[in-house]
Design a protein that fits this description.
This protein has about 180 residues and is α/β, with parallel strands linked by helices. Helices cover about 30% and strands about 20% of the residues. It has one domain: 3-Layer(aba) Sandwich (Rossmann fold).
């Protein structure tokens, strides 16, 4: 029988990855989750939200057609909630970054953001972050809980750099953290 421990083992694995996101979802039951870098985690988190049966939904945005097609072949887009979108490079606050392109209106009710993509090493301009969380906060007018999987440059951009706090002018306080205690 599937239970929370089953979903925890699928989502978190043995390395503790995604434990913070898992704990946040179980405890707070966000209604609309957006994940940048959609894939297996989008599928696993959707399965968890469906198991919890509180009416939440998830959309994952993927910018790489190779990985998008791979996700479809592996059955990870079973719920048709991984969307292939374009991505652009730009500069904000003297920082090079990328932005997934989708209508902001599609995510107007978002109350939890996960950043797990893209692989910034795939870009020639050496971007340091993904700007979509900033775009969402600017659109909504307030911060929402977010989880960043690794991605030091992105963590730094949003105010999580303990060595250089406030370096970029952003000091978001709603990072749920990257807890790895299992």
């Amino acid at each position: 029988m599937k239970n929370l421990e089953y979903y925890k083992s699928k989502i978190v694995g043995t390395d503790g990855k995604y434990l913070g996101a898992y704990n946040h979802i179980v405890k707070n039951k966000p209604k609309f989750i957006v994940e940048y870098g959609g894939g297996k985690s989008t599928y696993d988190l959707t399965e968890l939200v469906n198991f919890l049966d509180y009416g939440g939904e998830i959309v994952g945005y993927e910018c790489n057609s190779y990985w998008y097609n791979d996700h479809i072949e592996k059955g990870w887009n079973k719920y048709n909630n991984i969307k292939l979108v374009d991505i652009i490079e730009s500069t904000e606050f003297n920082t090079r970054g990328v932005r997934y392109i989708h209508p902001i209106e599609d995510i107007k009710e978002v109350d939890f953001v996960i950043i797990d993509g893209p692989d910034l090493r795939d870009f020639e301009s050496d971007p340091g972050t993904t700007f979509n969380l900033m775009d969402i906060v600017n659109h909504l007018g307030y911060e929402i809980p977010y989880f960043i999987d690794g991605r030091t440059g992105t963590r730094d951009f949003y105010g999580n750099n303990t060595d250089h706090p406030h370096e970029f002018g952003l000091d978001y306080k709603t990072d749920i953290g990257d807890t790895k205690k299992i």
